[in-house]
Every structure is written in structure tokens, then in C-alpha cells.
Design goal:
Blueprint (H helix, E strand, L loop, with lengths): L2 H13 L7 E4 L3 H15 L5 E4 L2 H9 L3 E2 L8 E6 L3 E3 L3 E3 L6 H9 L1 E9 L12 E5 L4 H10 L4 E3 L16 E5 L7 H9 L4 E4 L1 E2 L5 E6 L2 E6 L1
Parallel strand pairs: 1-2, 1-4, 2-3, 4-7, 7-13
Antiparallel strand pairs: 5-6, 6-12, 8-10, 8-11, 9-10, 13-14
Helix pairs in contact: 1-2
The chain binds ribulose-5-phosphate.
Length: about 230
């Protein structure tokens, strides 16, 4: 099975979890795109739901497929949030933010009764940290935050646009620093240290947030509980 097939399989499986009347959170990234497409197909067949999106791109995709996408102000509580991840470690500790949407993703996840993470098996790791940890920061705080992150040994690098000409801006018009920190021995401690830095808006460590991970691989979809 190719990675694309695995993403499509797990996206479809997650879409099958959605029931009539549910308030649904739409994640961001290529696996979430597969989920949103499968959900859109169900909506076109008559499923009645309302959704909140974790990025402008997911909102746009959802609406283009006929999904009613509203703001979190209009629908502050969500029943089921489906989103991908960049790394999944034991205990369902996650790194997210490869698609620069970690802030809105964490807000939507925190507004949801259930967060189901959807990944292909390449995302499973014994320890977090091989994937650079994204941190969303206020633009003017960049020198201050970079200095503190270097002192913590987290090796931040400003994320650039694809053409490399200018820094990438998130949907909230902030910068992303990708931290090449290697294995994160104590994610809770690292999360607390990052959070204590003035100018940090949010980090991509999602700890004790996902209830279930659906992992697609050669044997189909396997369910892991947190
Ligand atoms: O956190 C994210 C976006 O900010 C994504 O969920 C994460 O990057 C995984 O993306 P993909 O499904 O494309 O591998």
C-alpha cells in the first residue's frame, strides 16, 4: 500500500465515525484532506453535520464539498475532531504543525469532546523529536524567543515560504520556528519550558489530547488508545 493509499483509507475510516447531527472539527494536512473529501461525499449523500475548520484551507475545501463550515464562536463545542500528526509516540503523544496550523488545531482539539488522530504507519515513533518541533511565535518576539530556544538546546529555524524568499506566515499572521532538537526525553518538561517564553503563542506538542489514533498500514487500519 502506498502512503497516499494509506491516507485515503484512514481518512475514509474516520469519516465513517461521523454521525448525523454531529458537530465536527476538520483537521489540516494531506491526511485530513482525505478525511474531508470522504466526509464531503457522505454529506452529498445526505449526512447532516456542521463543522469548524482548523485552517483556512480546510474551511475552503469543506465548503467546496458542501460541508457547512462555521466559526468556533457560532459553534463553541465540537463532538469529534479528526486530524493528522507528524509524529505519534507511545501514549499518543504527538508532534503537530508540519502544515503550520498547530495553533488553530490545538484550539479546535481543545474545544472537542473527542480527538481522533489519523495517520499512516510512517508517523509512529518510539520517541518524539526526529520531526522538527514547530513553535508559533509573535513576529516581533523572534530574537527573544530564538535566543531562549537556543539556550534550551532546541535549535530553532525560521520556517520560510516554499520559494525561500520570505518567512512563512500562519493563518494568524505569526511566524513558525522549527526546532531541530532531536529526541525529546521529557515532552511535558519541554512543553512547559517553551510555554514559559514570552512571545510564544503555541507549540506543536499535543500531549494527552488524542483519545484514539487510527493508523493505516499494510494490515489495514489499527486503532491505538491513549
Ligand atoms: O499538524 C498538521 C498541520 O499543521 C498536520 O496534521 C500534520 O502536519 C500531518 O500532515 P499530513 O497528514 O500531511 O502528513
Amino acid at each position: 500500500m502506498t502512503q497516499d493509499d494509506a491516507k485515503a483509507l484512514v481518512g475514509k475510516r474516520a469519516a465513517a465515525m461521523v454521525e448525523d447531527g454531529m458537530r465536527v472539527g476538520l483537521g489540516t494536512g494531506s491526511t485530513s484532506v482525505q478525511f474531508i473529501k470522504a466526509l464531503g461525499a457522505r454529506v452529498q449523500q445526505g449526512l447532516k453535520i456542521r463543522a469548524v475548520a482548523s485552517s483556512d484551507s480546510s474551511a475552503e475545501l469543506g465548503r467546496s464539498l458542501g460541508i457547512e463550515v462555521v466559526s468556533l464562536e457560532e459553534m463553541p463545542e465540537i463532538d469529534l475532531y479528526i486530524d493528522g500528526a507528524d509524529e505519534v509516540a507511545p501514549g499518543l503523544a504527538l508532534i503537530k504543525g508540519g502544515g503550520a496550523a498547530l495553533l488553530r488545531e490545538k484550539i479546535v482539539a481543545s474545544s472537542s469532546k473527542r480527538f481522533v488522530c489519523v495517520v499512516d504507519e510512517s508517523k509512529l515513533v518510539p520517541h518524539l523529536g526526529k520531526f522538527p518541533l514547530p513553535i508559533e511565535i509573535i513576529k516581533m518576539a523572534r530574537p527573544l524567543v530564538e535566543d531562549k530556544l537556543f539556550k534550551l538546546g532546541l535549535n530553532p529555524m525560521l520556517r520560510m515560504q516554499k520559494d525561500g524568499a520570505s518567512p512563512l506566515l500562519t493563518d494568524e499572521q505569526n511566524y513558525i520556528l522549527d526546532c531541530h532538537c532531536g529526541v525529546i526525553e521529557d515532552p511535558e518538561k519541554t512543553a512547559a519550558e517553551i510555554r514559559a517564553i514570552v512571545g510564544v503563542v503555541e507549540h506543536g506538542l499535543f500531549l494527552r489530547m488524542a483519545e484514539v489514533a487510527l493508523v493505516a498500514g499494510g494490515n489495514g487500519v489499527t486503532e491505538y488508545n491513549g
